[in-house]
Specification:
Length: about 400
């Protein structure tokens, strides 16, 4: 059995009143011609009243990575996420692969895909081509990001001479191009280029006023950083849902890469425990520590009223499935905010406070660990961050 292969495409019959498939924009990546069923907008799903649970994948570079990606998609699809997203490499380096994978998910699975789009190294004409490519395969949800400079994310950001300078401009471009729902990035620890919290909040609100429908945060380890971000935004009269991004740490390399790219704060106690496990080459213990911490953090956020969770999967499914189990989310956790197909509320779904084993009662003490997380305790069970 070829478990890495995507599901067989669903046949969609066109009725007499259906429009013919759209023509591919000149210069845009070639995509499957199959006409996808109408995918819901993320904004519609969030307004339905449930919480959003979503997964992020990266476009594969090799055949082996392609197999791993589809294996993870097949294993996570039964959880019925609200949506899944596919990242866009620095400087648009994975543009064709990102659009191809996103289109294949739209055409060949029951999942609702969100395509990433970055402004860096792209002219406005090129950006329009990519937007048209997404539309051609039925992708109606886009995560609009300014993006990092290719090669060195901390290098000076230089706009394309015929491109855009800021993420809010990209939001307007996507919104003006058709019936799209647009998401943007949010930064609990501030964007690395923001001089202070006030300016960071101002830039975020500008993206929302440009038309953003929802936001996903960069990974973080302290619930208080997310809560402070939410309070800052709310004080500006902005009610756009901000979904926290969760990165389960399953290797020390993940933490080191996060520190290198985003400079995020890692709790000292957590880092010490991870390093001890790494020094002993105890992969099982390291995994248990990282997954347990992520589950406790997720429980705290849900208990504080977060509109859902967005998991950075690194094209692996196990850690996300373990967190689902620890939180008692079960199948179809998104409830009313499900994706395509039969996504109604399930008995194991969450609509109010979490009722799983860690629930919403986990509170991080001053030492850094969420309550209910103990390194080595009772829990069982390439980094691509989003950029403004």
């Amino acid at each position: 059995m070829l478990s890495h292969m995507p599901p067989r495409p669903r046949l969609v019959r066109r009725g007499p009143g259906d429009a013919a498939p759209r023509l591919r924009a000149a210069g845009a990546p070639r995509l499957p011609r199959q006409r996808a069923t109408r995918a819901p907008l993320i904004s519609e799903l969030l307004k339905a009243g449930g919480r959003s649970f979503s997964f992020e994948f990266m476009p594969p570079k090799t055949q082996l990575e392609e197999q791993q990606l589809w294996r993870a998609i097949r294993q996570l699809e039964p959880l019925k996420p609200t949506f899944v997203s596919v990242t866009y490499g620095a400087g648009g380096s994975t543009r064709d692969r990102t659009v191809r994978v996103t289109g294949k998910i739209a055409a060949q699975t029951s999942l609702t895909p969100v395509g990433h789009l970055t402004a860096v190294n792209h002219s406005v004409a090129e950006l329009r081509h990519v937007i048209g490519s997404y539309a051609d395969v039925g992708v109606r949800n886009v995560l609009a990001l300014r993006g990092d400079p290719p090669g060195n994310p901390n290098a000076e950001w230089v706009p394309h001479p015929r491109g855009l300078r800021h993420a809010d401009e990209l939001v307007r471009l996507v919104k003006s191009s058709g019936d799209f729902c647009v998401g943007v990035a949010a930064f609990p620890e501030l964007h690395p280029r923001s001089p202070d919290a006030e300016s960071d909040t101002r830039y975020f609100v500008a993206k929302c006023r440009a038309g953003a429908d929802f936001a996903i945060t960069q990974m973080f380890f302290y619930a208080e950083d997310y809560l402070r971000l939410r309070d800052r935004i709310s004080r500006q009269g902005c009610d756009v849902p901000v979904i926290p991004g969760i990165m389960p740490v399953t290797s020390l390399r993940v933490v080191e890469k996060a520190l290198e790219l985003g400079g995020c704060k890692v709790p000292p106690d957590l880092l010490d425990e991870l390093r001890k496990a790494d020094e002993k080459d105890d992969k099982a213990a390291l995994r248990e520590i990282g997954v347990g911490y992520a589950a406790a953090l997720a429980g705290r956020l849900l208990g504080e009223g977060a509109p859902g969770l967005h998991f950075y999967t690194l094209n692996r499914s196990r850690a996300t499935r373990e967190i689902y189990q620890l939180l008692g989310l079960g199948m179809g956790a998104s409830g009313a905010a499900g994706g395509r197909g039969d996504r109604g509320s399930s008995e194991g779904g969450m609509r109010g406070s979490p009722e799983g084993p860690m629930g919403g009662r986990a509170v991080p003490p001053s030492g850094g660990y969420p309550e209910g997380f103990a390194p080595g305790g009772e829990q069982s069970g390439s980094f691509a961050p989003i950029t403004a």
